[in-house]
Amino acid sequence: MRLFTRFAVAGLIGFLVISLLLFYLWTRTFERRLIAETKETRARYTNALVGHMLTRDDFAGVKKGAEWAVFREKISDLFSMPEVVRVKIYNPEGILIWSDSVKLMELAPQAQKNPQLISALAGRVEANISTLGKEEHRFERGAFRSLMELYVPVHFTQGEPPAGVVEVYLNLDPLFATIGDTSRLIGLTVVGGLGLLLAVSFTGLGRAVVVIHKQNQELRDRLEEIFKTTRMKNEIFAELSHEVRNPHAVMSYANLLWHGAFGDLPEKTRKAKPPLDKLRNTAAEVLSHFARIVELSRLKVGDVQPQREPVELIELLRGVANDLRLLSGNGTVKLSLAVPSDPVIINSDQRLLQQVVFNLVTNALKFTPSGEIAVCLERDLALGRVMIVVEDTGIGIKPDELPRIFEDFYRGNHLDARFNSGVGLGLAIVKRSLELLEGEIQVESLYGKGSKFTVTLQEGFKRAA
Asked: At 297, which helix (H) or strand (E)?
């Protein structure tokens, strides 16, 4: 009897141990699957949101002061996920350029000290469960028990290295609380039999599955909305490119009327010339807007690739200056050109370079009612580079507008500009064209005094023989 009792007790203990071990393994497996699914869906959602809200240019430079607030507004949709606790954004070098907590920007570890960040910069999604032991987690201690640190590489073009990495802290306390509550309930019912244990576990974990499934479905719906918006935008650009022929037709008929193609009626033709002039100018302006929209669209989707060839910069600058002198008014704006005495030849794309200079000088003419616009070509033999400088004495740029001047469709508010037309794409095209040419642009401006744009081409140049 005593042996039987011992056997029964041992069997009961063994049953309990095996049941608890199996339950522990099953719970951890289920927990890992839920975390893996959470990681995958949040990573896809984060990448889609950031790719929709930001551009590659936004990953350049640490965001401070007014730039911090502007950047926070750009990524506001990222905080729509209820479990998001913290957001950090790194540039391709692993430097923290923005965080929703300014204090964290001084505490974040460098890339070489963070294996997950290094892996994400190489293009892999990384995640780990943090127990808030690091110094950078001191602001979350006490409010949360555990967080998922999710590192999401941001790709704008397939096959290219990430433009940066978004690190998101996700609050896992509700998920672990659900699993923990379920585990405790199941642990208490193990003694009542394996059947009751399984029933309670399926009930509790079923609730967790329903919650996670509902959240994931909501994320999928948001993703579909983002993809639909992107498709609509691309369709609009494609439609605009087809409609460019309409202004061409208007200009053609206006030119025919101007030259008397429908009859020689001198008096009527003379009276019709002012409205015909206005019609031709309006059609030309609309055509210019269409052309810029289509050009920016092609630059953004990667349809434009640089065609490297020897380019003589002095000849290029003179050609642009001669073309634009007609827009300088009746002597109210002086357009000057300062270039070296010897030819300067670089290996670049002539069309893209001409587009950059044309848009910079046009922008200077627009915001210089009177005064001077100086176009200078400088060279640095020691560093093997050339600088194209466009400086004006116009109205300048307001400090709060300076960070936004290269954004698509940004025009600012300048009632004293010489021309009020335009769609705000000139400087955006300059920025994207220089990215293809591996060049840089810097801006200096004093409101009311004028602006200075400096284009630096990093490739070496050579003097013509």
From this structure: helix 266-301
Q: Give the model confidence (pLDDT) of 386-444 as tens digits.
A: 999 999 999 999 898 888 888 877 776 665 655 555 667 788 889 988 998 889 999 99
Tokens linked to 322: 């001669």
Same domain, 404 and 259: no
**φ, ψ for residue 341 (rounded to 5)?**
-75, -30
Length of the chain as a residue count: 465
Q: Which residue has the tokens 């892996």?
A: 119
- The count of domains in the chain is 3
| 328 shares its domain with 380 | yes
In a domain, 346, yes or no: yes
- For residue 216, give the nearest of 21, 391, 36 by alpha carbon: 36
Name the CA radius of gyration of the chain, rounded.
32
What whole-number distance in Å separates Cα of residue 451 and Cα of residue 27?
64
- 10 Å Cβ neighbour count for 451? 24
Token duo for residue 408: 């698509």
What is the Cα–Cα distance from 5 to 17, expressed in whole angstroms?
18
- Amino acid identity of residue 50, one-letter, is V
Same domain, 198 and 64: yes
Residue 118 · residue 111 · CB < 8 Å: yes
If asked whether residues 116 and 176 sit together in one domain, one would say yes
Question: For residue 101, which amino acid is it?
Answer: S
Token readout for 225 is 């909305």
The answer on 323 and 199 residing in a single domain is no
Query: In whole angstroms, what is the distance from residue 391 CA to residue 374 CA?
Result: 5
Asked whether 27 and 179 are in contact (CB, 8 A), the reply is yes
- Over the stretch 43-96, which tens digit does the pLDDT of each residue have? 888 877 777 788 888 888 888 888 888 888 888 888 877 788 888 899 988 888
Task: Give the number of other CB atoms < 10 A from CB of residue 252.
Answer: 11
Question: Which of 360, 294, 371, 287 has the alpha carbon at shortest distance from 328?
Answer: 371
In a 13 Å sphere around the CA of 388, the CA atoms on its Cβ side amount to 25
Phi/psi-derived region of residue 304, left when phi > 0, alpha when psi is between -120 and 50, beta in every other case: beta
Residue 437 in tokens: 């040419």
Q: How far apart are CA 149 and CA 204, in angstroms?
A: 26
pLDDT of residue 453: 96
CATH of the domain at 217: 3.30.450.20
Domain shared by 297 and 186, yes or no: no
How many CA atoms are closer than 13 Å to the CA of 81, on its beta-carbon side? 29
Distance CA 411, CA 32 (A): 50
* Residue 233 clears pLDDT 90, i.e. is over it: no
Coil, strand or helix at 96? strand
Global model pTM greater than 0.85:
no
Convert the pLDDT of each residue in 249-273 to its tens digit. 555 656 666 566 555 555 555 566 6
Establish if 241 belongs to a structural domain: no
